[in-house]
Amino acid sequence: MDRQMLRYELNKIKQMGLLMEVNNEVDPKFELGSILKKYKNRRPIIFNKVKGYRMPVCGALYTDREVLYKLIGIRHEERIFKLMEAIANPKPVKLLNYGPVMENIITGNVNVRTLPNPYFHEKDSSTYITAGMLVVKDIKTGKRYTSIRRFQVIDKNKISALIASPYLTNQFLEMEKQNKPLEVAIVLGYDVPFLLASQVSSELYGVDKYEIDSAIRGEALEVVKCKTVDLEVPAHSEIVLEGIMVPNRREKEGPFGELMGYYGQQGIHPIIEIKAIMHRNNPIYQTAFPCREEHLANGLLREVELYYSLKRLVDVKDVHVTLAGGYRFHAVASIKKKQEGDGKTAIIGALSSIKDLKHVVIVDDDIDIFDMEDVELAIATRFQASKDLVVIQDACGTTLDPSHTLRGVTDKLGLDATKPLNNERFERCKIPKV
């Protein structure tokens, strides 16, 4: 049905008055990315004329919380519970014999360079597919696994894949032991439910991500069979690359301008040989300036995990994994404090809930944690470093943080910016309703 995938959501964003259409010709090398960056990757844009290519490119579609909420029809305060409900109650998909993505099927002379893959930063090693959703089947259970990966274009039918996920790495290595390829598909042109489902942890929940998608969208995800690999893909997606991750072959990948504005290190990564390309008539290419769409969705799932980690320890009101912290390094949590140790307990719970989390601030429930001025007020007036600072040295972190990469470990910090119990000096001034 036409209400699934990218085209439907582009129309919804346009109806909201949020879609910027660029009709002047733009160069996919540097210029396209610089325009996305100029608007801080928060303004949905479609580039209708891309130099050297015949298909439009869209980006920054799912980088704003409020837009994302509207696209899936939820309110901010119910987001955590809706996502947990989808994880707990997955729904089946619907397999179709035919879908729009099958309007064009190319199996000979496959060339991924016919796609307008952008060149984002000065020292990037090549053009990259940054919004590609990788699809594989669990080699033991058959459950479908999806994740956004970055793919470096090497040749017309060859790309490299950064498979940093432990789950995906283990799947590939297990097949490699048998000298067998891992079948993959790469989907471009998806929507918010498909994106959110991809960020649910397979290691933690053991889920079929297509079924999580169906639960989030409130109807069965419609899928079709691929032409050359034993996988299903969304029937209404724009472009699908089919291929195999080749055993015992690696090539250099990177450097690449990463999420936090630094170049990721060069490494040796697996190769995908592209066997077929399916696409709709007049396809729309989906890109992501590194890489807000994925990380906002990932941040929302991190908020689910953070909330439920704290819920076991304290009376938590809400949690916020922040944009400026890359939706992984920084978090703020508000709690209803009931005893003096609650702030410190919340710090311990937060820092142990998400490996990537580096700094956390705990505030009272009278603070708006989505207003950083309000959070700063709490730090300024309720925090004393000698009593309220928690530092954990040499913990696990993430390679997206260059300061972690230097030593392989990271220091973690917690600020207890909650007020003392039963102290009138911290009552906030209010104006009666007029």
Automatic annotation (TrEMBL):
Species the sequence originates in: Caloramator australicus RC3
Residue stretches spanning the membrane: none
Chain ranges of the 3-octaprenyl-4-hydroxybenzoate carboxy-lyase-like N-terminal domain: 11-87
Protein name: 3-polyprenyl-4-hydroxybenzoate carboxy-lyase
Domain 3-octaprenyl-4-hydroxybenzoate carboxy-lyase-like Rift-related: 99-292
NCBIfam families recorded: UbiD family decarboxylase
Record's keyword annotation contains Lyase: yes
Entry keyword annotation includes Lyase: yes
SUPFAM superfamilies given in the database record: FMN-binding split barrel (SSF50475), UbiD C-terminal domain-like (SSF143968)
Its EC number(s): 4.1.1.-
Keywords assigned: Lyase
Major enzyme class: lyase
GO MF, one example: carboxy-lyase activity
Gene Ontology CC: one annotated term: cytoplasm
Family statement drawn from the similarity comment of this UniProt entry: Belongs to the UbiD family.
Domain 3-octaprenyl-4-hydroxybenzoate carboxy-lyase-like C-terminal intervals: 298-417
Top-rank taxon, per record: Bacteria
